[in-house]
Amino acid sequence: MIDESTDWVGQQMVNSIEQLYAEYWGRNAGTAAELISTSLHPRDMDSLYDLFAQTGSAQGHLVLDIGCRDASHAIELARRFDCQVIGIDPVPHNIEIARELITNWDMDELVSAQPGQIESLDQPDSSVDQIWCRDMLNHVDLEIGLQECARVLKPGGWMMAYQTFGGEHLEAQEAKRMFAALSLVPENMLPAFFNLATEKAGFSVEVRDVIASEWREYGIENGDVTVATNLLEIARLRRAEEEIVSRIGRGHYEAELAIRQWTVYQLLGKLIPVAYLLRKK
Question: Model-level pTM?
Fold first, then answer.
């Protein structure tokens, strides 16, 4: 997150009007436009499954999907790798929709969903081959949760952890408001704390893949209007704040605003998604 003591203007060249309109937006406009409009060939969200494939998950393996939500990832893991997947989630509503989706996809033989939380896993010691953990570690007691993951993994077992961190462009007040609105643990948004927690739990970091804005870029370049829609809805939320708050309450309003900012902030570098492959030592 940004250091508020940094004097950005004092460290940068201040452009003149002549430079802006004659040089940058005049003589050199074509070069800049070409560079800026050139795709950087971003990866899509399937890259997370490609990363998980490096764990060697296969038929006969047991995978634990922690924070499974609707079990869509658990189903895809079973479909791709022919492994057995147990999805756990602390929210009863998520378990309900997960079980329904599992049945609808006729995946009951390979996938199951049950209540559970990362800080106190029901699985026996050294019983799990791989763990899939996407986009939920920001909400939990990270040190205890990772220790539990290490406990249930077999020696040499793998954990794929997808985590979003606060970037250097995320200002302190933005962070404070967003973290409170989305029930995020502030220290979990720091890469240094994540690294310390993984080490204390007995994991080695085998792969650290900085996704940053790639998925969002890919979506926009391929016609996904999610970010544009979120920007429009942010504008509506701000312009009609008083009315919306009066109807749904301040807490609900803040959550709706923050979840839409989440995607936009990933594009702006305020939030940095990173995918890890961790291995139990």
Answer: 0.91
